[in-house]
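Problem statement: downstream parser choked on a complex file, so we are re-checking the raw output for the glutamine run. The parser issue turned out to be on our end (a line-ending mismatch), but while we're here, posting the original submission so the record is complete.
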Amino acid sequence: MKVGILALQGAVREHRNMLHRLGAQTVDVLNPQDLRGVSGLILPGGESTTVGKLMLRYGLLTPIAEAGRAGLPIFGTCTGLILLAKHINNSSQHTLALMDASVERNAFGRQQASFEADMPIPVLGGKPFHAIFIRAPYIEKVGSGVTVLLRHDEKILFARQGNLLAAAFHPELTDDTRIHEYFLSFIIEN
Ligand code: GLN
């Protein structure tokens, strides 16, 4: 199985290492041809306005949106969550507009610009997940097709809509492979 990682900006290497640990092959996605033959795609963290502009410039916005609509499994972390969403509060930045979600950017107060917390995530079973938040967004509301996988203080932090998975935090910065394994299970089922 070959998984693409959008490599325009952000924590690409950490996702790559995680996927290699799980036995998946990866390809860095920098232009539309790189999407050929991938059976899943990861959108890493970074800065979403910049990544959205770069996706447009490199001709990736439309092909990725089409692939997502056609059922390609896509996992977005942090900026990736923002890029997946149909609606960003107070912003008209470019997104893939795939997930039926309204997102609030940089939504944790200044003191909490970066923080870490152990969060119980039932779908992963077992012990809580050590979630690392870096100028994180959260999902404020979702449509009926979206399953909320983690909610904390009214904020939705992890959600799935069919082939789409979105996390407000950075599982690639931990040693815990459970969320990446969960994402790879979408590909196996696909
Ligand atoms: N604050 C960033 C944004 O709005 C997201 C931060 C991240 O990906 N760690 O794009």
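For whoever reads this later: The helical segments are 12-21, 48-57, 61-69, 79-84, 178-189.
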